[in-house]
Amino acid sequence: MYRVGIGFDAHPLEANKKGLYLGGVKVSEEYSSIGHSDGDALIHAIVDAILGATNAGNIGIWFPENEENRGRRSTEFLEIIRKKILAGKYEILNIDSVIIIDKVRMNPHIENIRLKLARILGISKGNINVKPKSGNTLYGNSVSVYAVCMLKKVGT
Asked: Which residues are noted in the entry as 4-CDP-2-C-methyl-D-erythritol 2-phosphate-binding?
């Protein structure tokens, strides 16, 4: 049985020296996203896509905005979802994503992002696609991400 899920996340950006993380990779020293956790919109969208494909709720149910998750690295969210939702039950066939951001040029970071996500999920980077778009100034000081994943239920 095949399952498909879609995820979306968006965060405003602010100029500072904390740095912006997308896909677990620092992509900017000049900006950071404003969020309860580390604000990694790419991982948040992927987590929601996986949860949607498995009918397991959404990121807010699994990782609510509480003190435990304040400032938490989103890579931990993805690791938990891999262990509790995917492990032994589903195989990731494909993840496709679009990052819309005006402030940061993403192309130099795409391969590192794909490698990082592949390591966390235990899959080939060939199963992960990340497409950056500038937004043509329509999105201003923000980052928005759409992600889709296709899973196969193990044993079917």
From this structure: 9-11, 36-37, 58-60
